[in-house]
């Protein structure tokens, strides 16, 4: 195997030296070798992609659809996304100029950050949050300004946002908001979004919303988007991964004002040329004819949530009640203080249950762990039993 020439070793993108690999993935890999481990670490639905969606992809392959698609996406997909968003949030996005199909929501985030951010720019990131945001932002040379929302029950308030914009976040170019939240499962009420929109307008910044879990909102609440209140400055990111159990298909999308979407679509074309043909046609089927698929998934996830929440609270875990997605973000037992990493490691070693340390999700996550309940009922039942026994024997 060849070794890199010694005179080439220093010649890399120096920003990469300041980026760490995913701690979530690293911890998951670390505990995976433990015999008998039940992993509640990764946000991976245990459900299968519905058959009608798989069959749409098969039909497309059989029709020899194997040539380059338009760079922003097939017209059928862009129309499907436009119609879907109009049904869901009441905003019409022009499929010819205001929507772009991407390789997953992660690809969408990368496109948006690369199009918006210059070295030295600030972008506000309410935490705890999916940690990949920080790495993608830093890769552009921009600076993520973390906002700890723990004291506000994991919902960024307009007052807190204003305080940050007048202080350490002064001069920020944008804010990114995850709704529903990973890792907390919290959902922003309409009245809070309206007030946040007013602050965002006042300070003349972009907003970016990651709404990948929008279909997985439970019946006690309703999902709203910042695009409903500031469509002229919000960039909406979503996809089909979570709602339709299509994580491996890698299909996301971006919708926003055409002036910024021109730059975003240009970046996307540079990075991927176009999304895979049959994957796009599967997404068309999901968005056009899969209205009931997320409803069935939600019923399953909500039952698991109630089961896990009830059991965990009985042994002293505290949490902000999840209202969407498929995560519980629970405060660890007092005897561990805020050392969530040590708690998670001991839980894995001694009880064979894998959970994710909260500190991996940024400020506001320390002292908590994230549990994904996107696993089978049998695994959830056994995992809860092991967690309860572990805590009782501390």
Automatic annotation (TrEMBL):
Cofactor: pyridoxal 5'-phosphate
Keywords recorded for this protein, A-Z: Aminotransferase, Pyridoxal phosphate, Transferase
Stated family: Belongs to the class-I pyridoxal-phosphate-dependent aminotransferase family.
Source taxon at top rank: Bacteria
Protein name: Aminotransferase
SUPFAM superfamilies assigned: PLP-dependent transferases
Domain Aminotransferase class I/classII large: 37-387
InterPro entries for this protein: Aminotransferase_I/II_large, AspAT/PAT-like, NHTrfase_class1_PyrdxlP-BS, PyrdxlP-dep_Trfase, PyrdxlP-dep_Trfase_major, PyrdxlP-dep_Trfase_small
PANTHER family named among the record's database cross-references: AMINOTRANSFERASE, ASPARTATE AMINOTRANSFERASE
Class of enzymatic activity (EC top level): transferase
GO molecular function: transaminase activity
EC number: 2.6.1.-
């Amino acid at each position: 195997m060849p070794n890199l020439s010694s005179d080439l070793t220093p010649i890399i993108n120096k920003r990469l030296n300041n980026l760490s690999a995913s701690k979530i993935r690293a911890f998951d890999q670390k505990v995976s070798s433990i015999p008998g481990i039940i992993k509640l670490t990764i946000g991976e639905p245990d459900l299968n992609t519905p058959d009608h969606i798989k069959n749409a992809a098969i039909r497309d392959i059989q029709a020899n659809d194997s040539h380059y698609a338009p760079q922003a996406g097939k017209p059928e997909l862009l129309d499907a996304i436009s119609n879907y968003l109009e049904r869901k949030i009441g905003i019409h996005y022009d499929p010819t100029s205001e929507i772009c199909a991407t390789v997953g929501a992660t690809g969408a985030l990368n496109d948006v950050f690369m199009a918006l951010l210059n070295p030295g720019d600030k972008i506000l990131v309410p935490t705890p949050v999916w940690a990949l945001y920080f790495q993608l932002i830093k890769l552009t040379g921009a600076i993520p300004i973390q906002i700890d929302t723990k004291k506000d029950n994991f919902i960024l308030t307009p007052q807190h946002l204003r305080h940050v914009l007048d202080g350490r976040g002064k001069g920020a170019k944008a804010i990114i908001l995850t709704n529903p939240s990973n890792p907390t499962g919290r959902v922003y009420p309409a009245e809070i979004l309206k007030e946040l929109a007013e602050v965002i307008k006042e300070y003349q910044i972009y907003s970016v919303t990651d709404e990948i879990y929008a279909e997985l909102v439970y019946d006690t609440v309703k999902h709203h988007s910042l695009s409903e209140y500031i469509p002229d400055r919000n960039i909406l990111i979503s996809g089909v991964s979570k709602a339709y159990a299509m994580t491996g298909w890698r299909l996301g999308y971006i919708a926003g004002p055409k002036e910024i979407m021109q730059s975003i679509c240009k970046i996307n074309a540079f990075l991927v040329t176009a999304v895979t043909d049959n994957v796009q046609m599967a997404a068309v089927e999901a968005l056009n004819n899969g209205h009931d698929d997320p409803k069935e998934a939600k019923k399953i996830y909500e039952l698991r949530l109630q089961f896990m929440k009830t059991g965990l609270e009985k042994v002293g875990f505290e949490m902000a009640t999840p209202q969407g997605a498929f995560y519980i973000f629970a405060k660890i037992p007092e005897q561990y203080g805020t050392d969530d990493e040590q708690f998670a490691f001991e839980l894995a070693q001694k009880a064979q249950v894998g959970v994710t340390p909260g500190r991996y999700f940024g400020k506001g996550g320390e002292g908590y762990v994230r549990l994904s309940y996107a696993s089978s009922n049998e695994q959830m039942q056994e995992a809860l039993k092991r967690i309860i026994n572990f805590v009782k024997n501390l």
